[in-house]
Amino acid sequence: MRKNRIRIFFASAVVSIVSVAVFFYFGLLDYFRMQPFDLMTKIARKDSKISEDIVVILIDEATLKAMDPIVGRWPWPRWVHAEVIRFLKDAGAKAIIFDILFTERSEDDKFLAEATKYAGNVIHSALIYRDEGEGFDVGRPLPEEFVKRFGIKVKGDFYDNSNNFTLPVPDLITASRGIGIVTVESDNDGVYRRIKVFRKYGDVYFPSLFISPYIYINGIREAELKEGILKVGAFNIPVNDKGMLLINNYGIVEPYSMSAILKTIQAINRGELSEMEVDPALFEGKIVFIGASAVGLEDLKNIPIGNAQPGVYMHVFALSNLLKGDYVIEIDRLWTFLLTLCASFIIAGIISFSNNIYIQVFSIPTTVSLLLAFSYMLFMKGYFLSPVYPVFFSVSSSVFSLALRSATEGREKRKIRKFLEQYVSPAIVAKIVENYEEFIKAGQGKRAYISVLFADIRGFTALSENKTPEEVVRFLNSYFALMSEVVFSNKGTLDKFIGDALMAFWGEPVEVENPSFLAVKTALEMRQKLEEFNRKSVAGFPPIKVGIGINRGYAVVGNIGYEKKLDYTAIGDVVNTASRLENLTKDVGATILISQDVYEDVKDKVVCRYAGSFLLRGKVRRIRVYEPLMFVEEVEHTYIETVEHLNKGIVLWEEGKREEAYGVFKYVADNCGDNYLKDIAKRHMNIIKGGVGK
Asked: Which of 108, 301, 354 minimizes the C-alpha distance to 190?
């Protein structure tokens, strides 16, 4: 036995090494690798704030709506942006950064250029990107003056295959203090998490928008990349092999709406300073980013902190990381690879050598939890190690090890599983097999709260008198197969077949949500399946009718019998009552009847007809009985109102108010479009006419 387990462990170890190496080499899980980063960001960074040196102004939906009657739809005349620049400059802004592309010529470019030159601290946006097309402009050189003014020398090199660009209009290039590249790429799952510090075009580098104010205001012309650290002035920025910074997001930004800025400018121009919506002093000494959050401006991006966020936030967050030293460093993939192998070996060893099923089972969530906790702890320290590969291979290794143990030591369990699958749902099979010894010893059972269903074919003895035994068996097998599938599909436990009757229950041995509703849903689906079954005329049998009774309450549930013959079943008054309700269906002309307790559980989801109160055999008190008809979501409100009228009529009849009850039933019979409900009303009218009591 020990030799077998050693073989299992070494087989699991070899498979882990090979599969981990293959998955890492081809990046087969890379689509999911960064998604834990998003979750950790949402949890750990929700209360974090951007640097106090940064202010954000957003062109939002309110701004577009307010400006539409003044300057029309976007894009606005450029004198509007010029006014904003002059306002911010006069307010003492340290730098004014536009995450807005002004790449197409306009009649009023000169206003924006003059304001840009006046401020002397404006950074405008440009694009440098990879163009897969073959147009005339692909690979063309940048203007020499542009390269001379804005190019940066970087010692060291990183990969960049850009071959095209889009620049601001020439007047802005001349007037700007600097140019920032706004090109960003998402990861393969569509989320934007990284940003290049510099974009390379040809042999020259250009700063991204977020770092451009620091570059140009401080006159920095060189940077150095060494061992994953990009040194730019006083900043040591951690980057990957593509020169990309992993952005540490912030949960709190508190931007200003551009509409508030424009209203403040108008108030100043009118000399009505008391009506300013924004205090200009708020911008003194600040780096001001101007971007868009309106949907129509098409600059919303999925970022770790949330979906459809303003694209300018990427630059704001990146600059805040620099100013606050608030970096998050992605740990090298080699360490992730080693951690993955280590976790796989540990869990394979536990499952291979442990005799305790609980240790085997709980080792999986325990290992996963420890990996997640370790990854989160590192994140809180400013490092990100993706738990995707370690978690995936921990689970995979455990599954493989369990499969090997099952193949070598689980033959008996497989025999038991094959036998049980004929009688109970897959969920119950799994539980019984995994706790086989416990179920064998469970002779005393347990007291459980369950919902019970009885279904019986009406008059089957008379129907089968002229049939051969083979025809009867074939008919019942077809019928039970169909009905059993309905029970299984609704998470039920198929207790037993009693002649032509079927018993099932919900709530044990696997807990389910709202067992009463699942039982009623099963009954309604059985009724529908019976119509299909009757059309097939199996073994020459005529169409059949069934009665179904459902009750809920406490019962004794467990393995009844002895070791060589165990029957997992439920016994008790709740079972007997369900059987009595099934017998009652033929007397009240219903297919399905449920008890008051079941009705209270399902009345919000199922339309039920009140069938009356009855004294069932073996009971000392009458119980209220209901007939489930349809799911609430499947019927019109008028149908529900009709059923409520019928229920009212039954209550009046039981109270001895026959004339009032007759009037209610007659109203239903005259106005109802549903034949079944109409027949019920007419039947009660005839009963009242005959003078029968309640």
From this structure: 301
